Amino acid sequence: MDRLTYTILDIATIITKHALLRNENDCIRYLIYDSRKVNDPKHSLFFALKGNKDGHSFVDVVYNLGVRNFVVADGFVPVRDYIDANFLYVEDTLAALQTLAKYHRKQFNYPVIAITGSNGKTVVKEWLNQLLAIDFNIVRSPKSYNSQIGVALSLWQLSADNNLAIIEAGISKVGEMDKLREMIQPTVGILTNIGPAHSDGFRSTEEKIVEKLKLFKEADRLIYSPKYIPSMLISEGPQLFTWGFEETDLKVLRKEQDKGFLTIYAEFKKNEISIEIPFNDDASVENAIICWSVMLSMNYSQEIIQKRMKALLSVEMRLELKNGINNCSIIDDSYSCDIASLTIALNFLQQQNQHKKRTLILSDIPGIEKDKASIYETVALLLKSNSIDGLIGIGQDISSFSGLFSKSAIFYNSTAEFIKALPGMNFYDETILLKGARSFYFEKISKLLTLKTHDTSLEINLNALEYNLNYYKRKLDNQTKLMVMVKAFSYGSGSFEIANLLQFNRVDYLAVAYPDEGIALRVSGIKLPIMVMSPDLLSFDAIIDNHLEPEIFSLDLLRSLIVLLEDRGIKEYPIHIKVETGMHRLGFDTQDFNELIEIVLTNNSVKVASVFSHLAASGSPKHDDFTREQITKLKIFTTKLKEVLPYSFFVHISNTAAIERWPEARFDMVRLGIGLYGVGSVNEGSLLETVAILRTSISQIKQIKEGDTVGYNRNGILKDGGTIATVKIGYADGYSRRFGNGVGKLLVQGRLVPTVGDICMDMCMVDVTDLPVKVGDEVIVFGKTPSIESLAASIDTIPYEIMTGISQRVKRIYFYE
Ligand SMILES: *Cc1c(COP(=O)(O)O)cnc(C)c1O
After folding, report:
1. Is residue 148 a contact partner of residue 94, using CB atoms and an 8 Å limit?
2. What is the pLDDT of residue 372?
């Protein structure tokens, strides 16, 4: 590929005066910062960034993977001599990464479009790519890489072969945009829109607008709508292209829906013009108008614009993990196909441990003719470093490079050819990644490989889960360990799917309620230590066979475990001692203390890994004195135990609410539960991201006359008649009967509508009077709105019960953006 090549010496010259170079000709192609995402160690430069975990503590790990080039902070002392590695010392490693990105960007003088705004950045970027790709060789941000790090990595992809770049910029607080602007140096700016001010790091909407506009200070042209920016905030500089419903360059007049297409009419240079798009939701309309403005400002003819707009495809940036046929897991990422997103998808595939075998079904990767060899060489390298067992290549390009791949790889010229061969193929107990360009219609393959899904599904947003995990990690200091509660099917949200992500994110411990849950995780390849909270005599063998660590809460239990361990000749088996401090559920009482000590001291078949207790009311201020007492009791117990035990053990008592409210009770470890799943304990609920969305759909619509009744026992009545929709969720799915007769509200077309009548086993009815609904329309049972918390409150229960009550027949779909 015709990209600039940098040696480590070149990079040293750009970012620092202080370098320790052993091999100054090492050639650098990849910038990495995550030790879990190393694909080509020889050509990678590792930046030790200070994130949730300090990157410096991973230098050794990365070195062992074969990386020899490092950017570290001044004063960093490696744990040992790496005599064949190069070290560049800088004041601030993130700033150094940005300096390099900025330098690289400066080497090119083709247009760079920068997009910012509260929503729609990624869609506008992807649509512009669809609309302009015929005329330009575009380089763009992968997925929604738009952060301080993401922008730098996006810019690093620029090459001399491109002639247009489209880069997303996202900020979350004041002061960040200047850094992004200096890196991107945009020539064209797009501001998509401005959302509500709260929920992020800005005091007001105005402050947010001012910050966002900093991106465009030196741009030649800015495309925006005055609807979002008061004119006084627009500074001089860029030439402006405005759109909106008032007097603007592109003045939107009206919309008309006709079958599958929506026509948008507008006035431009005194003429009425229009586009047709295959979407009709408000967000898509705005995004399309923005793209239209961009094309008009580039002097595209209306004829070309119309033709291309009509062919716009939906942008599905998310990758989904679903259950497949024959006990397979399917990772469906079949809407885009380029090296950057392939790398991301392979990393996700790598996180999956539930099946030994990993297969990739990959289409041609669109690109320019002369680059093809290098594209497929990179693919071959990626497959090798990600230990992919099987490759199925679909398309003429990838087939023509079959020589680059392992002998066992299979190739087909087209999706149709593959589908024809599918009945004879034996996919069984493996994880299959589907990665195909839009023109290959991999959704057809996806349909054939995934299990039929019942319309109702619980969608789990893995990014949000990761976000919440990091929210709590940031609260802990480096010493405090983190145990995550994955009992009750991870509070209803999944088993190995969640555990894989937690393992990948290096939490220290998992905890489950029953041995079966722990065994299921082991079978799925989870290697983390797992505590089992409710073990019993009969399950000890299975616990030991699966390296699970029992909670021990009574002398009887302890004695019988010891008998078994002695029988099997096992020494120092890890156990967790549960202490009674006020919950009055499970745990050793004070009077057991001496006997407990005696057993533990005189017996080497067990080893105390931790001593812990559980708080009864950590989230509730009115019980704070009681909580303080519980903490003290545990302290007294563990202090005494520390005095006599010849080895150390962890102490822990904090659940989610206590992590937030009782910093003094963090001890050696905390046990994170509900917060991970996006339900906050105290007031931080709004700082967490929504993890679970329960979606279903409308199966029939009926007109109800005055006097008609709806559902069992004729409890449902619409006084003046109206319209009801029958929705595919009932109490057997976990939508409690208590939500009947208007107590429950579901989201239909952005509006909360009440239930009518009793909730049935598999269905319920809602009032959709005056809403233009049709059969098949989506219904949200919970998500951002209505929230799980509000559902719980309306039937006088707690979020825990709502979450764990969603029945197993509701399919779980995991996605990653
Ligand atoms: C469930 C559980 C937790 C987690 O509680 P959250 O309130 O969900 O954070 C912690 N410790 C024990 C012993 C538990 O059973």
Report:
1. yes
2. 86
